[in-house]
User: Fold this.
Amino acid sequence: MPRKITERNDVIPILAELFRERGFAGTSLSEITERTGLGKGSLYHFFPNGKEEMGKAVLDDVANWFEYHIFAPLREGEDPYADIDYMFKATTQFFHSGRRICLVGVFALDDTRDRFSSEVQSYFGTWTKALTIALRRTDFGAAQAREIAEDVVAGIQGALVLARSQDDPKIFTRAIKRLKARTRIT
Amino acid sequence: MPRKITERNDVIPILAELFRERGFAGTSLSEITERTGLGKGSLYHFFPNGKEEMGKAVLDDVANWFEYHIFAPLREGEDPYADIDYMFKATTQFFHSGRRICLVGVFALDDTRDRFSSEVQSYFGTWTKALTIALRRTDFGAAQAREIAEDVVAGIQGALVLARSQDDPKIFTRAIKRLKARTRIT
DNA sequence: GTCTATAGATCGATAGAC
DNA sequence: GTCTATCGATCTATAGAC
Assistant:
């Protein structure tokens, strides 16, 4: 028997997709009620602080996903090469090969960032640090590992923006291929 | 004698900074009247189609700046090495070493892109193509020149997002240094 | 828990005096 | 050209019935 649709956790993915499409400021409660099928009463029951709390919940959900699937393995995995490769694979899937944009990236620009600055900062900071640790284990020096990690995380973000601007997912997959090559000692 | 402040062209830079800060959907007309010191009557005199026209005007202004200062030299300059170096220098200045975010990048995400898709597409597309031409002239092969150009344009965007998310302009300047190195044949 | 109804503020846009 | 006043629509959020 399928779980009841009306749980807080079931609403979050819908909110995430909406915020990705419209941005935070551009998403209205009436559109949220439409897409979730929930009245405002229900929404405020789940998120007493309204839109702000929905934004936080969505960022939190994304952070948890990345922490569990990507960051933790990078930090604590046994085979750094395999973990880095998996990072690229899982990231590509998560972003639907460039067709889906990064929610945190959307929140990172304009003044939405100020309302969620700690969440946004933590997402990119944690990613960069976890990748740095994995790269160090593949015998890169400390400085080089940090540079490559920054290059990769920034490169993924930029590729998402560029791919979306040109409506061309191949831009993203090409970027992933380049970035992946840079995580290998030559 | 300083030119009268109330000209359409004088309003555009103010609009640009506002859209950068708040995003398109997040910028209200009341805030625009506040920052420009112009009443709504005057604004609608300059921009009969309202906010939409302001958005187009601002994108147009940015596109013109880049075309004149960066794209045209890349395409038609005499010394491709110097032109590419100048691109990095001018870009760094334009983005205030990473403290200022990219207006077109802000417009490229969420559904704002749909309203300005041709402008957004043209900006990144023209940039990539112009840089590809310059790189070809420095004896890179066609395929490699295209890859590097894509890498650089995406890398700049990503570095802007990352630098802003961490409130750390050094992330941007480090990225520029790396990207610049990649435009040189080794 | 979920709904409808609605408050109160603010939105983009317009009208018309000067 | 620039202003103030104001429109109708839409916004976030709340109230209260069920």
Summary: Chain A has one domain: 8-182. Residues 6, 38-42, 45-46 of chain A lie near DNA strand C (CB under 10 Å from a C1').
